[in-house]
Amino acid sequence: MKLPKPLRFLRNIILFFFISTILAVVAYRFVPVYITPLMVIRSVQQVFKGESPCWHHTWVSSDKISPHLPMAVIASEDNRFATHNGFDFIEIQKAIKENETSTISQQTAKNVFLWPQSSWVRKGLEVYFTVLIEFFWSKERIMEVYLNSIEMGKGIYGAQAAAKYKFKTTAAKLSAGQCALIAATLPNPIRFDSAHPSPYIKKRQGQILRLMKLVPKFQLNEKRTKE
User: Fold this and answer.
1) pLDDT tens, residue by residue, 85-134
2) Confidence (pTM)
3) Which site among 10, 12, 69, 209 is 20 to 30 Å from 58 CA-CA?
4) Quick one: average pLDDT of 192-211?
5) Which of 80, 88, 86, 62 is nearest to 216 (CA)?
6) pLDDT at res. 221
7) CA-to-CA dists, residue 89 to 36, 76, 77, 117, angstroms
8) DSSP-derived secondary structure for 175-221
9) CA distance 138 to 34
């Protein structure tokens, strides 16, 4: 039985959505993520404010990122990252009560494929993309993309740009203290400046440095495991 034209159109839209999103996730398993929706949105916001668009982002492979940085963000953002399946239900329960951040996998899904404004639609799509990246990507790839795409300051995205514009170094040479400062500002990198930390950020830095010694060591790059 032939479907009515409106239903055929709806079916084709649904098929296109699933096929295109799955292909995009599979492609990003291997291809660097040079641009995200957030980068574009922030640039447009700057233009509407009468400012010149400010956009600093350089993709670097995982072996060119300090091993301290993934440990710092795990300690700060998601200390069960290496073991959960994308949804840390213990932390989600806490987040419901305290309105805190989501897991690194969820944040990566949001940063790469979605927009920052929270809504039920975005939350639903965030769950969908989180499931996809957890299925198609390794934990190392999720962390690599996260550290290259996350907002780390006004117009600053990723570890290499943060290292250059905040600490005048490279992502590979970031110290444990600098990585802890970056991680300390991630809940609100526009409000907090890792290069000029407030007493509150310095306090969080100390807490993160202590936690970095307690969380299981995470190898961002397989080559380092063999060294």
Assistant:
1) 444 444 444 443 333 457 899 999 999 999 888 889 999 999 999 999 99
2) 0.85
3) 209
4) 94
5) 80
6) 61
7) 27, 17, 14, 22
8) -HHHHHHHHHHTTSTTTS-SSS--HHHHHHHHHHHHHHTTSPP--SS
9) 19
Structure tokens at 209: 């440095």
The one-letter amino acid at 165: Y
> 3-state DSSP: the chain helix, strand, coil percent, rounded to 5?
60, 5, 35
- The answer to whether 185 and 49 are in contact (CB under 8 A) is no
pLDDT > 50? residue 160: yes
Stretch 146-164: mean pLDDT, rounded?
A: 96
Residues 150, 50: Cα–Cα separation, whole Å: 24
Q: At what angle do helices 104-113 and 120-136 cross, to 10 degrees?
A: 110
The two structure tokens encoding residue 123: 């939350």
DSSP H or E stretch at residue 168: none
* 86-91: long-range contacts, CB 8 A cutoff, minimum separation 24: 86/130, 86/131, 86/133, 86/134, 87/127, 87/130
